[in-house]
């Protein structure tokens, strides 16, 4: 009979494992039960040492109630805990520490009661969702990824909880604000220490509060914890996304956005690299007459169009502006640019920059400083040189000490001046482009064959020749005929 009993039991286990191959049964992979043995089916929880219990293969959180009544330290593995709440743990009156590993955990929205004496909660390699297997064309579908959905408000009343540790999980946090305005893990009791080790964390702007918890000593996040996003990522944008970037670095950059000027809007869009974020500062149409004294220090794009700026010298001297890759100053009243400061700004940078200076009041441009800079760049084979848009300005085409050199600068660097065919001598666009105007006739007119000084010199030469000829004639008359010159014969005093 024992043989038939064991044979029947093993066959039942085999059929059960085959049945669990589908995720629709329990909502988590069958491999969670792959290592389940006959003992775990008969008794899912075993006491490994005094007051320490290990449970494996649980199919619901209700199984905890009767299986681990004496546990102070309870570990649950390879299980499905759907709609887990504090009520399931209340019968475990001695429970101090709960560790859940390699399991599907779906937390209910019910707040865990304060009378629950739990001091430590560890979630390791857990998940909540049933991943969407429908991938879209040409995109990285992060919905295939398992993640652990956490509503921190369920622990807001659990004042006994000293440590919440989340290890190697992809965390998606419900950021619904509480009554005091706190969000996410900020709702944890002040005495609870949050530890996130490895894994990933869904990143969006509201989660800067997590960095505040770290800085205040209420939380610790390991350096190998990265960001992830659930949206589909196109192949083109995957290079610039937050996906797989270090969580703390992303949060620090998001916090830097708080330095955004009050008249502007700032947005962190992604990354070229960790030290070159795509961070935009948009101050268009804000009525500003000067540049803001402070912006996020890693800002890459500054939009100051449609304001009343008259100069942009602060860009070249303020460290907050040192990493800009795009500067839009179009439609302002900028009348001059400090050439020496501009040149120093370019030479101190490691990457190129674009200046949009269209529709301002510029009549002069630092062509001498920039010509030497561009020539040096061309000789060294540098491809990424600064670029300008310069149309719509009243360039001084009457100044012959400027305009020929400006025309040469535009011509020689037209690949770095996208609107070079629209750079004209006025700001109305009525005149021809500067590249097509012949300034030689204006600045170097053709001269007449004889200058005034030449006429004077010729006259003096003729007088000298006449004098010499007269002297020779008088000398000849005197020697041959003894006649004195006419002047001597008629001068009474000679």
TrEMBL record:
<dbReference type="InterPro" id="IPR051432">
    <property type="entry name" value="KCNMA1_auxiliary"/>
</dbReference>
<keyword id="KW-0406">Ion transport</keyword>
<keyword id="KW-1133">Transmembrane helix</keyword>
<keyword id="KW-1003">Cell membrane</keyword>
<protein>
    <submittedName>
        <fullName>Protein singed wings 2</fullName>
    </submittedName>
</protein>
<dbReference type="GO" id="GO:0034220">
    <property type="term" value="P:monoatomic ion transmembrane transport"/>
</dbReference>
<keyword id="KW-0732">Signal</keyword>
<keyword id="KW-0812">Transmembrane</keyword>
<keyword id="KW-0472">Membrane</keyword>
<feature type="signal peptide">
    <location>
        <begin position="1"/>
        <end position="27"/>
    </location>
</feature>
<feature type="transmembrane region" description="Helical">
    <location>
        <begin position="450"/>
        <end position="472"/>
    </location>
</feature>
<keyword id="KW-1015">Disulfide bond</keyword>
<dbReference type="GO" id="GO:0005886">
    <property type="term" value="C:plasma membrane"/>
</dbReference>
<keyword id="KW-0813">Transport</keyword>
<dbReference type="InterPro" id="IPR032675">
    <property type="entry name" value="LRR_dom_sf"/>
</dbReference>
<keyword id="KW-0407">Ion channel</keyword>
């Amino acid at each position: 009979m024992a043989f038939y009993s064991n044979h029947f039991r093993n066959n039942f286990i085999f059929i059960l494992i085959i049945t669990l191959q589908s995720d629709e049964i329990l909502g988590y992979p069958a491999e969670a039960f792959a290592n389940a043995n006959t003992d775990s089916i008969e008794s899912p929880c075993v006491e490994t040492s005094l007051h320490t219990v290990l449970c494996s293969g649980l199919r619901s959180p209700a199984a905890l109630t009767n299986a681990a009544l004496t546990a102070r330290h309870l570990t649950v593995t390879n299980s499905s805990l759907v709609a887990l709440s504090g009520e399931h743990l209340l019968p475990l009156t001695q429970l101090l520490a709960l560790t859940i590993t390699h399991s599907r955990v779906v937390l209910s929205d019910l707040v865990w009661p304060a009378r629950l004496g739990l001091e430590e909660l560890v979630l390791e390699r857990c998940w909540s969702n049933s991943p969407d297997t429908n991938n879209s064309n040409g995109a990285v579908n992060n919905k295939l990824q398992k993640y652990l959905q956490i509503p921190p408000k369920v622990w807001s009343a659990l004042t006994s909880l000293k440590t919440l540790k989340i290890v190697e999980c992809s965390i998606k946090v419900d950021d619904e604000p509480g009554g005091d305005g706190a969000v996410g893990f900020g709702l944890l009791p002040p005495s609870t220490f949050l530890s996130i080790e490895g894994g990933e964390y869904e990143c969006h702007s509201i989660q800067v509060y997590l960095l505040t918890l770290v800085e205040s000593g209420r939380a610790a996040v390991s350096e190998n914890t990265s960001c992830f996003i659930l949206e589909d990522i196109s192949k083109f944008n995957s290079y610039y996304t937050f996906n797989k970037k270090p969580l703390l670095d992303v949060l620090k950059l998001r916090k830097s956005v708080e330095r955004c000027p009050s008249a502007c809007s700032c947005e962190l869009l992604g990354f070229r690299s960790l030290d070159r974020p795509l961070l935009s500062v948009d101050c268009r149409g804000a009525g500003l007459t000067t540049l803001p004294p402070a912006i996020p220090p890693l800002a890459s794009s500054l939009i100051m169009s449609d304001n009343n700026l008259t100069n942009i010298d602060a860009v070249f001297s303020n460290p907050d502006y040192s990493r800009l890759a795009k500067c839009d100053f179009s439609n302002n009243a900028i009348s001059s640019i400090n050439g020496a400061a501009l040149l120093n700004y370019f030479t101190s940078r490691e990457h190129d920059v674009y200046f949009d200076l269209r529709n301002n009041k510029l009549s002069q441009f630092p062509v001498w400083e920039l010509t030497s800079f561009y020539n040096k760049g061309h000789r060294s084979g540098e491809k990424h040189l600064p670029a300008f848009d310069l149309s719509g300005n009243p360039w001084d085409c009457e100044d012959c000490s400027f305009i020929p050199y400006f025309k040469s600068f535009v011509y020689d660097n037209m690949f770095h001046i996208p609107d070079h065919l629209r750079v004209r001598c006025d700001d109305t666009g009525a005149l021809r482009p500067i590249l097509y105007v012949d300034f030689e006739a204006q600045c170097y007119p053709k001269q007449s064959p004889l200058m005034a000084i030449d006429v004077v010199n010729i006259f003096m030469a003729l007088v000298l020749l006449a004098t010499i000829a007269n002297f020779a004639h008088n000398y000849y008359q005197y020697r041959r005929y003894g006649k004195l010159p006419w002047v001597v014969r008629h001068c009474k005093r000679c």
